[in-house]
């Protein structure tokens, strides 16, 4: 620990020296300016679509003070002419909205209507007493239906909740169900208070509305004050937390690359510190910095600090581990720029897209951002949900750091070979040559979290494609990914010439398949604690007997490894295609009833 | 000119040689296009019209109360099947047997207010579906009750389409797609310039009869070319997806001008600091300042891209021409001071 801190301190000094000196003042000024700009933007409020709509209003029409609208005051005659010529999107003749049939005019109408309705509501709320202004109060309660099919019928497009899904049986008619046959007791005062509260929240708008849990039991809602259902704003907002992590991790990667290319890392290796200490020590200041920013944001938002750290620690570690691997492999800075953009878009997609499904599908829980959305809404995150979203991230971090320590040698760090060769070498180095059997078994388990994450992300990706297409894509891609994961380390060993006999190769392939199989079962167990079993999931995990999938894994991995050994590393893609075909064929057979 | 061309060739070659870069662009392209498809799919879940038409979701509501109430008519006109019940218990039984998706109870009211009850399924998906479907009829009914209370509510009969998708598309997605390549171009310029300093290859380059300005111009040019390639690709992809870009040529021209301005700025930063780490840091901070500053001054490039792509009237050549002013300034200043910046020690 002491050594790790020493390295961290050294890293901090390095940053200070780098950013200090004469140019330090310039950098400091720029940082201050950026902070000031961000603060101004926060104060000012950002309207993203300034001036996107062109609106004509008659001289006796209402005032429209919304930055999205460019307002032109003009007489009705001229207004109609300009509207028909397309010079206006919509014309507002006193209180009549006149539009064209085309899309832009219709969208403008939608936006204008929403704005004017809001103004009307503000006027009504101010002019009249609450009972007259908000005459409709709805008490929402819920009731559990018996298990069975959803009422959604198959259509042109497969819904996210596919109709073939079997839902876990819900407890039928438990005595705890809310008694709803009773007449509503008069609760005038509490209702009034609730309306007042909703009105205040609605008037403030924006983020304050997010803190409330979404439609809790017995809540009184007012239709016109109901918050929008779509979680887009929540998700975008929760992504705000991720930005500082991405920012600092890029600098961590840059620092590591620079020291690698200038061979300073190699010099470090000659001192009595272990690679693990170097990696953790160099990472620590940046991780601490990102967590500090996240804590600051959480405090500003008055959200749950502990939960926020619990969610973002694995996210931070995950992002840093992705950049660690990048920093150890790429050769030039140009490589780094492109690959880090690639990693950036992949991480963003992985975090954001599932979170958009919050509430619509429990698949959303594969992304930790879903937990953040729940946190912002003030809802409870269950232990199962937390574990599903974060365990793969924690594991991936541990594995990446492990691989990082294994490749931390002079030869690897200072060589400039094509990326795929570097990847193979990385796997070779990760494997312990003296304990090949255990290594083969563990290597496929180690790659599982990554496989698992990619596969679940795939399920989300295909979820609104037509069922048949979705299943084919899932079966083929997941089989390919699994075959790569199982065979990668063995192919790496083949490349280094560590495997001499074919029997040894077969044994290692079997062990790798066995490792993968046992790890997979464990993960599936974890996933099914949160996710409902669906056709999509069984397309990947090929539900069925215990012994058959094991045999399948052994056969397919064996095929890939033996073909590669026979024809050479160049033909690995071909071998992979063969293994994938066997694997996919089995999975297709298992889900044949759906196809 | 020939010297310049050979410099360009050298830089272009170095980019195209990097298979990883091409590969990375393609994967990034795939991720983004998949994401946009999914995003639009997800947005359809919150749009009642799309729910009814694409998913063929026909919600069935059990209604306990006065069947002649306008609420029933509002519900039916929003394609909701309304099944009248006289008793709550029978409606509940039908709900449990999954013959209903929600129950609405409207007790008789003799005051200004109506206290309604809405029973929704426990499953969150279904709750959200039902709320999306019920939103409009309930609001209409609320306005009807307001009118009964003597409150006139205007602008009720306007139709229009939900605008959030439209705004996100033109104000977020299009500007991101157009500016992202520009930002990457700036980043590449920093990489290639600082690489020359860090590898000390610059001194060798200086011993050849090529001026420093030409070397940098070639680097900037190549970075801008890769950006243009990506931008054209994005506009094409949007078109394939049936998304209307109103002024593609204007949009591309403006984006290229921004990319070039950014590339010149990035080159100046890299020349000043002469190492990648500081340059990239200052570069990203400067971008934040410029983004916010131009926004506050109402000169935001993001906003211009939004308005160009959405075909807002009165936005065109003049605005684009104005954008060339900062480009000219920065280009002239850069070409004049680049030699001095380069020789200065940092």
Question: Which descriptors apply to this entry?
Answer:
heterodimer; A: 595 residues; mainly alpha; two-stranded antiparallel ribbon; 21 helices; 6 strands; globular; B: 346 residues; alpha/beta; four-stranded mixed beta sheet; 13 helices
Secondary structure: number of strands of chain A: 6
Tally the helices of chain B: 13
The poorly predicted ranges of chain B are none
The biggest sheet of chain B, with number of strands, parallel, antiparallel or mixed sense and barrel status, is: 4 strands, mixed
Radius of gyration of chain B: 30 Å
Task: Describe the fold and architecture.
The complex is a heterodimer of chains A (595) and B (346). By secondary structure, chain A is mainly alpha-helical. Chain A has 21 helices and six strands. In chain A, strands 2-1-3-4 form a four-stranded mixed sheet. A two-stranded antiparallel ribbon of chain A has the order 5-6. Chain A is globular and about 90 Å long. Chain B has 346 residues and is α/β, with parallel strands linked by helices. In chain B, 44% of the residues are buried. Chain B is elongated. Chain B has a four-stranded mixed sheet, sandwiched between helices. Chain B is built from 13 helices and four strands. At the A-B interface, helix 2, helix 4, helix 5, strand 5 and helix 7 of A face helix 2, helix 5, strand 4, helix 6 and helix 7 of B.
């Amino acid at each position: 620990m002491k050594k790790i801190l020493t390295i961290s301190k050294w890293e901090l000094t390095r940053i200070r020296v780098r950013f200090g000196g004469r140019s330090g003042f310039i950098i400091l000024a720029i940082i201050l300016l950026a902070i000031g700009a961000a603060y101004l933007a926060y104060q000012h409020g950002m309207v993203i679509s300034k001036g996107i709509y062109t609106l004509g209003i008659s001289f006796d029409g209402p005032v429209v003070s919304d930055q999205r609208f460019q307002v032109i005051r003009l007489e009705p005659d001229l207004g109609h002419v300009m509207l028909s010529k397309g010079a206006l999107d919509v014309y507002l003749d006193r209180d009549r909205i006149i539009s064209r049939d085309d899309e832009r005019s219709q969208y403008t109408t939608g936006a204008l209507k929403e704005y004017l309705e809001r103004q009307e509501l503000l006027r009504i709320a101010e002019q009249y007493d609450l009972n007259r202004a908000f005459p409709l109060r709805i008490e929402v309660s819920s009731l559990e239906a018996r298990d069975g099919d959803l009422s959604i019928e198959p259509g042109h497009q497969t819904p996210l909740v596919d109709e073939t899904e079997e839902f876990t049986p819900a407890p039928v008619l438990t005595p705890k169900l809310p008694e709803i046959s009773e007449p509503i007791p008069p609760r005038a005062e509490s209702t009034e208070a609730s309306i007042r509260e909703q009105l205040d929240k609605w008037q403030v708008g924006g983020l304050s509305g997010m803190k409330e849990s979404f439609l809790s039991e017995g809540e009184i809602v007012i239709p016109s004050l109901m918050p929008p259902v779509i979680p887009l704003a929540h998700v975008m907002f929760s992504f705000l937390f991720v930005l500082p992590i991405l920012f600092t991790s890029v600098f961590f990667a840059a620092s590591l690359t620079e020291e690698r290319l200038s061979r300073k890392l190699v010099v470090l290796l000659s001192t009595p510190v272990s690679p693990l200490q170097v990696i953790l020590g160099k990472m620590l200041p940046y991780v601490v910095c990102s967590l500090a920013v996240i804590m600051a944001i959480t405090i500003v938002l008055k959200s749950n600090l502990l939960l926020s750290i619990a969610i973002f620690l694995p996210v931070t570690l995950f992002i840093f581990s992705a950049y660690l691997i990048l920093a150890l492999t790429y050769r030039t800075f140009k490589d780094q720029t492109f690959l880090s953009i690639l990693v950036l878009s992949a991480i963003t997609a992985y975090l954001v897209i599932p979170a958009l499904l919050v509430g619509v599908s429990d698949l959303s829980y594969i992304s930790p951002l879903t937990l953040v959305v729940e946190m912002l809404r003030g809802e409870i995150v269950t232990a199962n949900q937390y574990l599903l979203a974060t365990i793969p991230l924690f594991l991936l971090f541990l594995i990446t750091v492990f691989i990082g320590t294994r490749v931390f040698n002079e030869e690897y760090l200072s060589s400039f070979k094509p990326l795929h060769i570097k990847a193979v070498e990385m796997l070779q180095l990760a494997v312990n040559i003296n304990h090949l059997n255990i290594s083969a078994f563990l290597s496929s388990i180690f790659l599982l979290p990554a496989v698992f994450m990619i596969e679940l992300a795939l399920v989300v990706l295909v979820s609104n494609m037509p069922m048949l297409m979705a299943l084919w894509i899932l079966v083929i891609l997941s089989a390919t990914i699994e075959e790569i994961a199982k065979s990668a380390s063995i192919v790496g060993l083949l490349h280094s010439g560590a495997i001499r006999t074919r029997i040894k190769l077969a044994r290692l392939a079997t062990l790798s398949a066995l490792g993968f199989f046992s790890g997979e079962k464990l993960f599936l167990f974890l996933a099914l604690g949160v996710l409902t079993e669906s056709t999509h999931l069984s397309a990947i995990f090929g539900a069925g007997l215990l012994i058959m999938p094991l045999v399948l894994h052994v056969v397919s991995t064996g095929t890939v490894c033996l073909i590669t050994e026979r024809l050479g590393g160049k033909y690995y893609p071909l071998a992979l295609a063969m293994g994938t075909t066997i694997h996919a064929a089995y999975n297709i057979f298992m889900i044949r009833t759906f196809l | 000119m020939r010297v310049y061309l050979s410099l360009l060739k050298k830089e272009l070659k170095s980019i195209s040689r990097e298979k990883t870069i091409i590969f990375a662009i393609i994967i990034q392209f795939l991720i983004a296009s998949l994401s946009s498809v999914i995003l639009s799919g997800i947005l359809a879940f919150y749009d009642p019209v799309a729910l009814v038409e694409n998913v063929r979701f026909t919600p069935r509501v059990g209604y306990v109360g006065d069947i002649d109430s306008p609420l029933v008519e509002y519900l039916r006109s929003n394609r909701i099947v309304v099944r009248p019940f006289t008793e709550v218990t029978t409606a509940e039984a039908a709900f449990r047997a999954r013959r209903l998706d929600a129950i609405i109870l409207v007790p008789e009211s003799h005051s200004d207010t109506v206290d309604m009850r809405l029973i929704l399924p426990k499953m969150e998906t279904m709750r959200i579906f039902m709320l999306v479907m019920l939103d409009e009829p309930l609001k209409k009914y609320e306005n009807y009750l307001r009118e009964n209370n003597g409150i006139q509510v205007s602008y009720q009969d306007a139709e229009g389409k939900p605008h959030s998708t439209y705004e996100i598309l033109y104000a977020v997605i299009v500007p991101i797609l157009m500016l992202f390549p520009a930002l990457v171009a700036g980043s590449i310029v920093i990489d290639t310039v600082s690489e020359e300093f860090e590898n000390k290859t610059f001194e060798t380059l200086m011993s050849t009869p090529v001026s420093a300005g030409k070397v940098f111009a070639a680097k900037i040019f190549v970075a801008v070319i890769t950006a243009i390639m990506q931008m054209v690709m994005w506009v094409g992809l949007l078109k394939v997806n049936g998304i209307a870009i109103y002024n593609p040529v204007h949009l591309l021209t403006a984006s290229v001008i921004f990319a070039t301005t950014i590339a010149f700025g990035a080159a100046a930063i890299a020349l000043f600091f002469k190492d990648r780490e500081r340059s990239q840091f200052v570069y990203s901070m400067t971008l934040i300042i410029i983004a916010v500053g131009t926004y506050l001054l109402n000169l935001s490039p993001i906003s211009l891209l939004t308005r160009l792509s959405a075909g807002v009237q009165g936005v065109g050549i003049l605005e684009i021409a104005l954008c060339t002013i900062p480009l000219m300034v920065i280009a002239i200043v850069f070409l004049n001071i680049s030699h001095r910046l380069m020789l200065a020690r940092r």
